[in-house]
Structures are given as C-alpha cells and as structure tokens.
Amino acid sequence: xxxxxxxxxxxxxxxxxxxxxxxxxxxxxxxxxxxxxxxxxxxxxxxxxxxxxxxxxxxxxxxxxxxxxxxxxxxxxxxxxxxxxxxxxxxxxxxxxxxxxxxxxxxxxxxxxxxxxxxxxxxxxxxxxxxxxxxxxxxxxxxxxxxxxxxxxxxxxxxxxxxxxxxxxxxxxxxxxxxxxxxxxxxxxxxxxxxxxxxxxxxxxxxxxxxxxxxxxxxxxxxxxxxxxxxxxxxxx
Length: 237
Prior knowledge:
Blueprint: E1 3-12, H1 15-26, E2 36-37, E3 46-51, E4 62-66, H2 71-84, E5 87-88, E6 100-103, E7 109-112, E8 126-131, H3 135-145, E9 149-153, E10 156-161, E11 164-170, E12 184-190, H4 196-206, E13 209-210, E14 221-224, E15 230-233
Parallel strand pairs: 1-3, 4-7, 8-11, 12-15
Antiparallel strand pairs: 1-12, 2-3, 4-8, 5-6, 6-7, 9-10, 10-11, 13-14, 14-15
C-alpha cells in the first residue's frame, strides 16, 4: 500500500485572497469553499489555503517552480504575478541565473524557471515542489508514495509519479535549521480501498512520527517526516 499526494496546504493570513492570487497565476478555478484550487491536470494535486495568525518568518521549506516556454512567456508570467500582487525577491541569486525569484502577497517564495530547462521538461506549468531536505528524506518520500527516484546525485533527490506531473525534490545539505511549523506542508491519503491507520503505521515504520499540534479530534493524522517536516494523512479517497 502507499499514500498519494492530495494537496499542498499553505497557511495563510488571508486564505481567500491568497487562493485568488494563485488561481489567477496558475489559471485554476477556485472551489466553492473559496480556499481550494483543484488540480488542472492529471496527475495533479490541490492547493489549499488554511487560516493562520502566525506571520511568516524566514524562508519556507517548500517553494514552487513554474516553467516557461520562451523568454517572452517567462516575462509574461512574471508580469502576471506582479499584477496579481506578487513581488520580486532577492535570495542571493546571481544575475546570470535564468530563473526569476518572486514572492506571493504573503511572502511565500516561488521561481519562474527559464525556458529550455531540461530537468523540468514535460512536468507541466507547476513543475516542481522544491524542498529543503536530506537525501534520507527523499528516500523516505519515495517509499511513502511509491514514486520512483528520478534524481539522486550529490545528496540531491527528486521523485515523480510514474504517470508524470510535478516533481518533488530535496536539495540536500546544508539544510537550514527548522524554527517552527512549516507554512507549507503536504496532504496525503490512501486510495479509496486503503486504510488510514495501516498507512500511518507503515509511515512510522519508514521513519515518520505522529505529532500533537493541538489539533484535537480530527479525521486526519498529523505526522512529521524524518527531517521533522509536518504532513497530514487524510482518510481514504
């Protein structure tokens, strides 16, 4: 058995406003709840925005990579992000680097990748979740999801569904110290014939642990991967 990636969950001060930004940038619809963007392709995953009172501090452990088809297209995507309320961001990138680093209205980092990037070829517009993390955590997530490693070099790893779609990658050391709950985290679920409790036990055996964040009686299980990054296991779907 495995779990599959259901959603990327983003903590937000204003979930509705942030969902509108990302819907406009990714050309996705917003569900009736006002905070969920269903996937626009298959395979794909939701983006869901959940309320928080905590202001963002420090760089996120996960950021998104968007692809472009030409320099004009890259400029168009950047201009669209700025029109929607995003901004340019300096994280120490070099002038000769082809990607453009931006932040959404709540400061969450993302990159618009230059055209012709061979590594992300065929991954779609939302091409990658780029994560801080060790090689061991990449191996954990490969075993957890059943997605094969499509990159394993110099302590960097990446996995991808056998059906294609976005990659999930970990940059290897040095990994920045974790200072609090991650603002972005993954939602996973067993398939419709799966068993949530059995999957939680399997993930614990792989190196995860259960977390108590004061969530109380809820239908999902909050866990942490071997690097300490939070994720949730939902009921089968």
